[in-house]
C-alpha cells in the first residue's frame, strides 16, 4: 500500500487554478521527486499535502486514511514532516532551540534525546554550532537545521521543498547525500520538490514532471534522466 496517495487534486488561488487535477503516489521507502519549471505548482502541491493550503477537489490519502481536511499540526503527529522552501528557521533562536521546536509533538523525553543524538550524527555541524544563533548560520547550515528540525518529530514521511535553493554546489552535494542517508539508513520516505532536476533525479527512485498544474510525465528517475524531452527542458546546463 502507498504511504501517500494524491488523487485528482485541484487547488485554486482565488479564481486562478494552480493545480489542475493531479494524481500520484509515494510508496514506503521511496524517494519521489516532483520536478518542473518555476510556477509549475510544485510548492502548492506540497503545501496542500501538509495542510497549509486547502484543496478544492480531490483526495489526499496517508497510510490509508483521508487527510485532505486535516490541519498541518495534526499531520506532524501522524508522521508527516515538512521542510519549507526558504528553510524558515527562527533566526533569533539557537540551533538547539530550533531543534527542540521540531519536537513539540514528542511526549517521551528520553526518545526525543535519542533522536537529537541521531540528528547530531547526521549533521555534525549542528552539534558543533548548537548554541549559535540560527540567523548566523550559512544557507547550507540553515538547510541542515530545517531538515534536522523536521526529523525531530520522528517522521515516516519527510516532504522537502527545494532543499538546494540558493546553495553552493558543495552544499548541494552534501544535502543530497544526507537526504539519501535519511532514506536508506533511517527508513524515512522522501517526497522532494526540486528545480535542480538533475540532482533530484540522481537520488530519486521515481519522479513526476509538473507543467502548469498538471503531470506531464512520470516514471523511473533513471528513465526520465535519459528521456529526450526531459533532457531538453530540464537537464540542459
Ligand atoms: P517555484 O519553484 O517558483 O516555487 P512552483 O512550481 O513551486 O514554483 P507554485 O509556487 O506552486 O509553483 O505556483 C503555482 C502557480 O500558482 C503559479 O502560477 C503561481 O504564480 C501561483 N501562485 C502561487 N502562490 C500564489 C499565491 N499565494 N497567490 C496567487 N497565486 C499564487
What's the helix and strand layout?
Elements: E1 4-13, E2 16-26, E3 31-36, H1 42-49, E4 57-62, E5 65-66, H2 72-78, E6 80-83, H3 95-101, H4 109-122, H5 124-128, H6 139-151, E7 157-161, H7 169-184, E8 189-194, H8 197-203, E9 206-211, E10 214-220, H9 221-225, H10 228-235
Parallel strand pairs: 3-8, 3-9, 6-7, 7-8
Antiparallel strand pairs: 1-2, 1-4, 4-5, 9-10
Helix pairs in contact: 3-6
The structure holds adenosine-5'-triphosphate.
Adenosine-5'-triphosphate is lined by residues 13, 16, 18, 36, 38-44, 195.
Task: Please describe what this structure looks like.
There is one protein chain. Helix content is 38%, strand content 27%. Strand 1 (4-13) and strand 2 form a beta hairpin. The strands form two sheets. It has a six-stranded mixed sheet, sandwiched between helices. The chain has a four-stranded antiparallel sheet with strand order 2-1-4-5, covered by helices on one side. It is of the alpha/beta class and 237 residues long. It has ten helices and ten strands. It has helices at residues 42-49, 72-78, 95-101, 109-122, 124-128, 139-151, 169-184, 197-203, 221-225, 228-235; strands spanning 4-13, 16-26, 31-36, 57-62, 65-66, 80-83, 157-161, 189-194, 206-211, 214-220. The radius of gyration is 17 Å and the shape is globular. The model has no long low-confidence stretch (mean pLDDT 93). The structure holds adenosine-5'-triphosphate (ATP).
